[in-house]
Amino acid sequence: MGVIGVVATMKVQAGKEAEFEKVFKDLQSKVKANEPGCLQYDLCKSKSNPQTFVIMEQYESQEALDAHGKSDYFKAAFPALGAVLDGAPGLEFLDRID
Amino acid sequence: MGVIGVVATMKVQAGKEAEFEKVFKDLQSKVKANEPGCLQYDLCKSKSNPQTFVIMEQYESQEALDAHGKSDYFKAAFPALGAVLDGAPGLEFLDRID
């Protein structure tokens, strides 16, 4: 199996954008420090809708993606992110074609 | 201005997946050979819908994104891609937050 991509789309409540960015960037720093199998974990903001954020992710394997979701820091960030989101994240799981 | 991300979602007509991949990978090789300002141009296929492809793209500047769209090989690939797509591509333009 090859590289796995994830495009996660998150709509944030109006006025909560800065709080979302703060919580997410703390999570991002922990992912980059602890997950060599995470090849990409980029936070992006929509140009057309400032409340919509998109995370572009890639993992070297399904095991690396599973480890990402099971980490203590990921589980800890979830309630803080959930508190500022407007609805559930949209998750698209992908196989990269090399 | 910082890095620009693009998530392009393309639904391909049933039975045309291999043709789409062939045309896209030829375009991808030309992008990688000619566009130093294109930082990422990854073709991915949805795990949940085998007719849905997602291209994860990043450009170092708006100028690099503009140059991408104006290249002769991009313009040449467009009719061939359009012939196998099921509807217009979905394009999300993003600012990467570093």
Structural overview:
- Chains A, B: This is Antibiotic biosynthesis monooxygenase.
- Two copies of one chain form a homodimer.
- By secondary structure, chain A is an alpha+beta fold.
- Chain A is globular and about 40 Å long.
- The first copy, chain A, has helices at residues 17-34, 62-70, 72-82, and strands at 4-11, 38-46, 52-59, 90-96.
- In chain A, helix 1 packs antiparallel against helix 3.
- The first copy, chain A, has a single domain (4-95), classed as Alpha-Beta Plaits, CATH 3.30.70.100.
- Chain A is built from three helices and four strands; from the N terminus they run E-H-E-E-H-H-E.
- The model of chain A has no long low-confidence stretch (mean pLDDT 96).
- Chain A has a four-stranded antiparallel beta sheet with strand order 2-3-1-4, covered by helices on one side.
- At the A-B interface, strand 2, strand 3 and strand 4 of A face strand 2, strand 3 and strand 4 of B.
